[in-house]
What does this fold into?
Amino acid sequence: MSEQTITVTLPDSIYERITSTAQTTSLTSEEVIRQSVILLFPALETDIPPDVRLSLTKLSLLNDIQLWQTAHSTMDEQQQVRLEELATSQKNHKLTDKELSELYNLMNDAQQVMLCKAEARRLLAQRGHVVFNTVEH
It folds into this structure.
């Protein structure tokens, strides 16, 4: 993926919030801005890696029971605990390159789980199910 650099002039109040957030999270101001912009502009289908797109496409082949299981799936408990540990550590000190890489990988895994859950719910709704009523299927 190629990247572009831009220069933006910000009001002092926004700049102060960015630097405060950077200090709190042990990130650079540039990384805080980068992550904020990424969150503001959700991924387009073309931004999703091919293997994830394939996984999402395969969901349409599942029956309703399998879709409900996917819609209620969670990240592996050990991965979730490690993700939380790294996120907490990041608030207290700068992570090593290895830890930062592990954190990004776990965040990507968590994002994939969420994408699959969302797609499963979309498919269930398309099939006539009420997806926000978790008592009955």
Q: What stands out?
A: The two ends are 41 Å apart (CA to CA). The chain has six helices and no strands.
